């Protein structure tokens, strides 16, 4: 009996250490993602003429999405958040890649649809709307794809109440919700009559989403660290 | 005393209406008025003269023989003085540059709407905001005004143009031809109707004053905005008219000392979007050009037009025509108009003007002796007397001239100060009445708020302590203090105060009410705190049980209330609501996904739960569709089976369908301010080229309405509904909005009174059947079916009424409203179980969104007044106001009636559903109003107070009055239920 208790305690201890390292890995990943956003803000003005965040917003949207997706893919390859037990063949991997691409595209279309339902113009400024949808997908869907893979059931599990099983799931929840809420809040300044350049569709929303994403990235490790006791308990 | 939640909510709202009425009375100040109605020539003051009375006691002679007032609606300042004016109004520009004119920029005050502006021009007063509301009616102008004075003096006045004038001044004109501004899309005929009389009347010599009011420019502005290509030709046309008048008059001017005058002015400007009503520079600045050969001699270089007030025209016109100045005029004489006269005459004019302003100030301000302007005027008057003495003694030296010049300057300063302090009086708020009203409103709101836990409990009852607080010492103390405050405030205040002027008994009764409410509030609060201490732990657990949807509903509602602090969010309130219901639908679809996709992962006990739910579903279905099954149509049963089989997918898709419906409704009516000018689908449909499309749409919509609503009606009302909807189509066809399929060309248009009354009869019939069913269920008890059918019939009667009154393209809104309601009840609420409070919140959100979907906004200009004339020969005040209110608020009204029907259906499961719904509805309505009056009080000196905040205040208050009515209905239905359960 006593031995069992000791073993359980040791396990708990081990789990704690595991979590510590996981959180550290997670933080590194988040910092890199944050740097990707920063990169998209700082580097293009040096390389491109006449680049400005507000003036050539569409270019920035493309660059930012590409950066974020690339970093996500790189992180997936280096950190391997949810290591699968099975060894998969090359064909299987290609298949998965194809599926992921399809998922990403569908999510872009879905976001586009939702944004139009929210009142974005249907035909005029369609590119703005679509690139904003791409940005949102790269903030949310690309991370999901990289962490969970193209597995719809896993997604539903993660995004339901008490469905997260690891720190990665939690960070996914937090960043996704933060980016979407950021985009949601970003829509509020649009009707104000201040006539500022950033009130033009979709600048305030994309900035809101980016801001939310970065906040989520920074917040997630701390939040998980503070709540690690409760979380380890739950994941067991 | 135990009080039911619905009764409590109902009482609270009714008392809040009282408080708001008091607040409104204080918030909208009455315009400065003279007590005596009209001034007469006998009251004219004599010229001041030291010593004996002056020999000049009569009014000065008129300056002008004939006056032509050309009022061009929505003439913006830059249409005359700007680039557009130089380009298109060549003749006037030439006159201005030659120096035979006086040009000014006259500042109009908000609200920049035609009728108040005509009043301002003719009476010299600043009409209060309340005048807009009366604008629907435009009754006779009873105040003293130039037109009345001219008529009294025997001048013959001829009028052509906007028939608002004829309504304002009935029987004042010897000849008139009114054109109606009802058909906004017409901008050539309205002006041709004015101009066609011109040749004739200019040839004749039997008139003294000619008033022309051109509407075309305003119509162009409303249609296409100030930069449209139509503006240029219209300005050219106006210029041509002015050229004609000017040349005709100058050819007749025989006596150079007694010339005629042409006044060219605009009543208000035009915003960049082409509308008016607000207080932006473009809307407020209007040109005022006075053309007369009297001004010819001082030709000079063209200088920038001086800025004056619109009210200054009235005294100038009055003195120019040799009439007494209207008693309540706030304006000051334009000095340049009398500059060519002798010093004595000029001084006489200024003295008359100052005397009238002083008198008005004396009647409206208690501390008038201390007013700066009055003191200066008294000084100038003394100096004037001395000057006259010198003048009459025959002194003609340079000293006299210099003294005269100085005196004129002094008079002008005095006049300016007097005019300013009078204008300030107009915008003075009656803070005391506002405070009392706000306190009552606040107390009622807090009472509602405190009652939330017990009223939303399973008993839906609230223990209201009445006896103990009333007999407490604190109550009497408060009463005494309030009475003392009342006496002190009323004896010390300088301004007029409504609450002080009502009868002593009334004021005391209100004070006692306030004190009693305060005591009740405190005692309830005390009780709750005591209870809270004993059971602290329970409270925290209840907080964590909130779902995301609760959070969304709460945050959304609070966020909307807070957003009303920004004027842009008030202007664009529809965006807030569209955004919120979209989010709500997405949240619903997320819950739906969770429900269907995660159901497998739940515990086993859930299956039994599900079975139970299915059973209840079947049960409810049976009740709902009992009579449907009696009919047993083959097609219907197939449809039902299809729904049963694919329930999961339909349910999953339903939030999406609602979202798409809302998105489709959005471009139907553009509202708000910023995006108002965008072309919307509604305009496209109502334009005359698209009549066939509109006819098809209206027909389809009417059929859809019938299909969607007939399911739960009895056979009699079904037939009545069908005939009623047919009648609606006939009505629209008779007044020329739609075509019959067999009809190719538009026949003569009538008012369609017979058809409209035909529909009214069916509306009344359905309503009466419904009420009869309700009464029957009340008498017979336990007749559940009759009751829900009765409620549904009342609801369908209202839908029919809305179908009749809505503008034809808005029938789409009605169809989508019914469709969304059906989707919500059949698929969403049946599957996702929500309690009454949550459903009430959602209904409220949808109701608000539909308020804006039907084209309303928070400005007065979008109120559809034409609904008040449906089926009436001419304007009858009470039905017109009721119908207009109904059509304006039909979105929220229909949704809340639907809420009642739905909650009544839920009564089998939870007997307190209606009471909970009623209470939630009351609190959700009282929250924005309460916060808003506090905001408005804080913003009362805000720049947009008249153009943005005040209209919204009116909208909110009227909405609250309607909600109080709805709550009474809820309470009656709920009482019914209580009575039944007691049996």
Automatic annotation (TrEMBL), chain A:
Where is this protein localized, as stated in its record?
Answer: Endoplasmic reticulum membrane
Q: Which InterPro entries has this protein been placed in?
A: GPI_biosynthesis_protein_Pig-F
According to UniProt, this protein's pathway is:
Glycolipid biosynthesis; glycosylphosphatidylinositol-anchor biosynthesis
Please cite one Gene Ontology biological process associated with this protein: GPI anchor biosynthetic process
Q: How does it sit in the membrane?
A: Multi-pass membrane protein
What's the short name of a Pfam family annotated to this entry? PIG-F
> Where on the tree of life does the source sit, at the highest rank?
Eukaryota
Gene Ontology cellular-component annotations: endoplasmic reticulum membrane
Entry annotated with the keyword Endoplasmic reticulum: yes
Q: Where are the transmembrane segments?
A: 26-46, 58-79, 100-120, 126-146, 167-188, 200-226
The protein's UniProt keywords, in alphabetical order, are: Endoplasmic reticulum, GPI-anchor biosynthesis, Membrane, Transmembrane, Transmembrane helix
**Protein name per Swiss-Prot or TrEMBL:** Phosphatidylinositol-glycan biosynthesis class F protein
TrEMBL record, chain B:
In which pathway does this enzyme or protein participate?
Glycolipid biosynthesis; glycosylphosphatidylinositol-anchor biosynthesis
Q: Which GO terms describe its molecular function?
A: CP2 mannose-ethanolamine phosphotransferase activity
Q: What is its main location?
A: endoplasmic reticulum
Q: Where is the signal peptide?
A: none
> Taking every annotated instance into account, which residue ranges of this chain make up the domain GPI ethanolamine phosphate transferase 2 C-terminal?
646-959
How does this protein sit in the membrane?
A: Multi-pass membrane protein
The UniProt entry's GO biological process terms, in alphabetical order, are:
GPI anchor biosynthetic process
Which UniProt keywords are listed?
Endoplasmic reticulum, Glycoprotein, GPI-anchor biosynthesis, Membrane, Transferase, Transmembrane, Transmembrane helix
Read off the InterPro entries from this record.
Alkaline_phosphatase_core_sf, Phosphodiest/P_Trfase, PIG-G_N, PIGG/GPI7, PIGG/GPI7_C
Entries under Pfam families matching the protein: Phosphodiest, PIGO_PIGG
Domain of life of the organism in this record?
Answer: Eukaryota
* Location(s) in or outside the cell: Endoplasmic reticulum membrane
GO cellular component terms given for this protein: endoplasmic reticulum membrane
Q: Does the keyword Membrane apply?
A: yes
What residue intervals traverse the membrane? 431-452, 464-489, 501-530, 719-738, 758-775, 787-806, 812-832, 929-947, 953-973
Against PANTHER family, the record matches this protein to: GPI ETHANOLAMINE PHOSPHATE TRANSFERASE 2, PHOSPHATIDYLINOSITOL GLYCAN-RELATED
The Swiss-Prot or TrEMBL record describes its family as follows: Belongs to the PIGG/PIGN/PIGO family. PIGG subfamily.
How is this protein named in the record? GPI ethanolamine phosphate transferase 2 C-terminal domain-containing protein
Q: Which organism is it from?
A: Engystomops pustulosus
